[in-house]
Amino acid sequence: MTTRRPATTRTRRFLRDNGLGLAFGVGFLLALAGQAIAGYADFNNQLATEGLARIGFGEYLMSSDFAVDVTENWQSEYLQFFLYITATVWLLQRGSPESKEMHKAGTESDRDQRVGRYAHRDSPRWAAADGLRRGLYSHSLGLVMGAVFVLSWLAQSISGVAAYNEEQLRRLEAPVSWTSYIGSADFWSRTLQNWQSELLAVASMAILSVYLRQRGSPESKPVGAAHTSTGVEG
């Protein structure tokens, strides 16, 4: 007869097994709430400076100004992950735990990837499938990250043109079309200031982790590992 674990034990195990995702998820919600509160205060300060009436918090949350601030960060983050996931298939960095070993550049063999007839009993079902299903699953992480980036970029451009046109109208100037906006300096200034920071962060992580260590972290090599050790995690 199977003994059922107490609810507190199951809860503790769930929290332990999902601690990383839960911690960052809660951190995301807290940061988003803080951004909303600070953005609301700043937006109303701008309205007061222009001699316009304040808006409510709920109205601000539904505004294009809040949406563009959120989505411009989301699209840059997902671009970072998409590029890193796909670029590291072929691009290597000797000595970095963020890189594959130097002889593993490329998509690797079916045996190494445990697909098709090399799939194990506990492998995902689509890994053992043939044709399109295996092909899609083999690239599913990059495809999803790329799709979220495109959707976030589209959402940023739509909310961005709405926010830009609201500002134009407050200045008694003519609004612009979506196609005109995505070619504007305002759009690319918002976009590129996020892209450059994300790309710098990835490059810094890949290079600094060659020489620096963080004991116990899977993002670092073991403290005693040689600088030339590649693809080794602590």
Give a written overview of the molecule.
This protein has 234 residues and is an all-alpha fold. It folds into two domains: 18-62; 64-234, no CATH class. It is 63% helix and 0% strand. It has ten helices and no strands. The radius of gyration is 24 Å and the shape is globular. The relative contact order is 0.11. The model has no long low-confidence stretch (mean pLDDT 90).
Query: In terms of per-residue confidence, which ranges show pLDDT below 50 for 5 or more consecutive residues?
Result: none
Question: Structural class of the helix and strand makeup?
Answer: mainly alpha
Instruction: Name the shape in a single word.
Output: globular
The number of distinct helices, counting runs of at least 4 residues, comes to: 10
> How would a textbook summarize the main sheet?
none
Task: Give the SSE string.
Answer: HHHHHHHHHH
Kindly state the number of beta strands.
Answer: 0
Query: Portion of residues in helices?
Result: 55-70%
Distance between the termini: 40 Å
Quick check: average pLDDT?
90
